[in-house]
Prior knowledge:
The protein has helices spanning 6-15, 22-38, 40-51, 62-72, 74-92, 131-144, 163-172, 182-191, 208-217, 242-253, 268-282, 288-298, 307-317, 329-332, 350-355, 391-407, 411-425, and strands at 2-5, 99-102, 108-115, 118-122, 148-152, 176-178, 201-203, 222-223, 231-236, 260-265, 300-303, 321-325, 341-344, 381-388. It is of the alpha/beta class. The strands form three sheets. Strands 1-11-10-9-12-13 form a six-stranded parallel β-sheet, sandwiched between helices. β2 and β3 (108-115) form a beta hairpin. α2 crosses α3 (40-51), α5 (74-92) runs parallel beside α6 and α10 (242-253) packs across α11 (268-282).
Amino acid sequence: MKRLTVQQFLQEKQNTEQTDSRSLDESVLNIISGVKKEGDSALVHFTEKFDGIRLNQIAVSENEFLEAEKAVGSQFNAALQKARQNITAFHAGQKEQSWFINQMGGITLGQKVTPIERVGVYIPGGKASYPSSVMMNVIPAQLAGVKEIVLTTPPQPDGKISPYVLAAAKEAGVDKVYKVGGAQAIAALAYGTETISRVFKIVGPGNAYVARAKKWVYGDVAIDMIAGPSEICIIADETAEPYFVAADLLSQAEHDEQARPLLITTSRHIAETVQNDISNQIDQLERKTIARQSLEQNGRIILADTLPEAFDTANTIAPEHLQLMIRDPFENLPNITNAGAIFLGNYSPEPLGDYLAGPNHTLPTGGTATFSSPLGVYDFVKKSSVIHYPNDALNHVSEDIISLANAEGLTAHANSIQIRKDEDDA
């Protein structure tokens, strides 16, 4: 990992060139167009082209679900059930209710909360299997009252879906699972095919093709966010356990080569020790090649003069995951304004949030934590304003409305009020 001062890091961040996405966009738009025109046959074609699998059927069968249930074992199923309980308990507090207020003169105003009817969940495949992402994306939708939840995910080299993903889908209550990944899956969810009906919102993480496809279909369908590579930022002072810090940085580095592991520390001793501990731990990892590339390309150790400077730097980064491995993390929590999820202390590592604690692990990346939030129940509902005025109440404010409408030159608006006033005066 490269070691930098705060000023050097911020200069590097500013100088980083934006990825030229024109070639990627051209490929993604061709895939979307193909799916819109050819439907299922395009899904079969693109799956064979990109995944090397010739699909005999797009939908996962009931037998495949039964096979998956047997394959995963009782210990995994028990862990899955515990995760579901914790995720459900946390997200239940996010449920919103319709509300109404009654004012004088018979006026009623309010907000009606309605679940989105049909949602598509994308779960990545390829480098790893992500049953935890199934739970995190599906359970909030279930709690919101979504009527139908479907899931798409790339097939494995044997043409099947990971049994862990299928077991999680069954546990979470997914209605249907389809063996389709990449931009073609996003297009199918957005526009529909003979097998896959279109949805009204698409959620879930994915690679660059998935992210760009979500960007291009947005507007025809809602999306949760355009997620980038996974990120962790750890703020550590002299009280942090260096071996823990190294392990936590590696837990993100193993995601993929583009993952961003960052350490901000006020202690030169911590910086040096963590770097040594990373070297000692990395060779023990199954995904050490991926982790090493992530650390070399994107890993940074940033030396801050003070904790306030460390907090300011973290808020500028606005990371997906932020760990405060410092003295008095609760006392310093108000200093953090931009982060997807915040982990406090030496014994609250990021994987705790990924799997079992309960808060959602689908989080804003790429600095978008400055304006966006973790996935939640609120992402699966829509709100309608409700307005009721009786005749007398409308007549009481009619002149005000007419005056405002005329000031904007919208005389038909004014007339809509005037004719009711005239009828009342007659």
